[in-house]
């Protein structure tokens, strides 16, 4: 009886390793690109064919397709060149909010034989929103006897591009009046 159980265990082990290697061949290594937000439609992200080790004929013959996990199709593949290109304007703040990192996962599917590739596109922030102070006017009262080089505190500005507030000295947009 123990011999029979040992034989079954061995068959399950072989079956497990067989399935593991089949899945290993279907799911390839991950590819990652990094782009700035709000690129124009048609901007090249990277050469997907080259990075995945595919020829241009394979892309067309094996029906390569890209699916976004974000729901909206932000990227397409130029089958003539094998390049991943921007399909629609990407607004990082709308997509990821105030998150420090913004990564769009993509699934690249190639048929006959089936292969799946995971591609990630990191969306980098551009400073498209200027910081704003709570008030347009800042009044500093500085005594005449104040020593030279003294630092004066200012209110923090809010910047929608940065998750935290920071001290910003945009004197072009802020009027300061000194009394003393």
Give a short summary of the structure:
The protein is of the alpha/beta class.
| Assembly state of the chains shown | single chain
Structural class: alpha/beta
- Helix % is 10-25%
- Low-pLDDT windows of residues: 163-180
Which term fits the overall shape? Answer: elongated
Instruction: Say how many strands there are.
Output: 9
Please identify which CATH superfamily of the largest domain we are dealing with. Answer: Cadherins
Q: What is the H/E string?
A: HEEHHEEEHEEEE
- What name is given to the CATH topology of the largest domain? Immunoglobulin-like
CATH class of the largest domain: Mainly Beta
In total, how many domains does the architecture comprise? 2
Tell me what portion of residues adopts beta-strand conformation: 25-35%
| N-to-C CA distance | 100 Å
Helices, by number, come to 4
Corresponding CATH architecture of the largest domain = Sandwich
Report the major sheet. Answer: 4 strands, mixed
Topology of this structure?
Layout: H1 2-26, E1 31-36, E2 44-47, H2 48-52, H3 56-61, E3 65-68, E4 75-78, E5 83-86, H4 92-96, E6 103-110, E7 115-124, E8 137-141, E9 175-179
Protein name: Cadherin domain-containing protein
Main location: membrane
Subcellular location: Membrane
Describe the protein in words.
The strands form three sheets. The protein has a four-stranded mixed sheet with strand order 1-7-6-3, with no helix packed on it. A three-stranded antiparallel sheet has the order 2-5-4. A two-stranded parallel ribbon has the order 8-9. It is of the alpha/beta class and 180 residues long. The chain folds into two domains: 28-124, Cadherins (Immunoglobulin-like), CATH 2.60.40.60; 129-180, no CATH class. The chain contains four helices and nine strands. Residues 27-133 form the Cadherin domain. It is a single-pass membrane protein. InterPro entries: Cadherin-like_dom, Cadherin-like_sf, Cadherin_CS, Cadherin_N, Protocadherin/Cadherin-CA. GO terms for molecular function: calcium ion binding.
């Amino acid at each position: 009886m123990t011999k029979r159980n040992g034989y079954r265990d061995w068959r399950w082990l072989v079956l497990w390793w067989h399935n593991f290697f089949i899945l290993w061949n279907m799911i390839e290594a991950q590819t990652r690109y990094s782009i700035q937000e709000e690129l124009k439609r048609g901007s090249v992200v990277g050469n997907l064919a080259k990075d995945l080790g595919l020829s241009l004929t394979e892309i067309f013959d094996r029906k390569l397709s890209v699916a976004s996990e974000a729901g909206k199709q932000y990227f397409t593949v130029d089958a003539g060149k094998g390049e991943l290109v921007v399909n629609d304007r990407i607004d990082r703040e709308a997509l990821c909010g105030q998150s420090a990192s913004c990564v769009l996962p993509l699934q690249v599917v190639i048929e006959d034989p089936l292969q799946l590739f995971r591609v990630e596109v990191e969306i980098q922030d551009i400073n498209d929103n200027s910081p704003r102070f709570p008030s347009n006017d800042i009044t500093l009262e500085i005594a005449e006897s104040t020593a030279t080089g003294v630092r004066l505190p200012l209110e923090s500005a809010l910047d929608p591009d940065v998750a935290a507030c920071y001290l910003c000295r945009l004197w072009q947009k802020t009027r300061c009046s000194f009394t003393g």
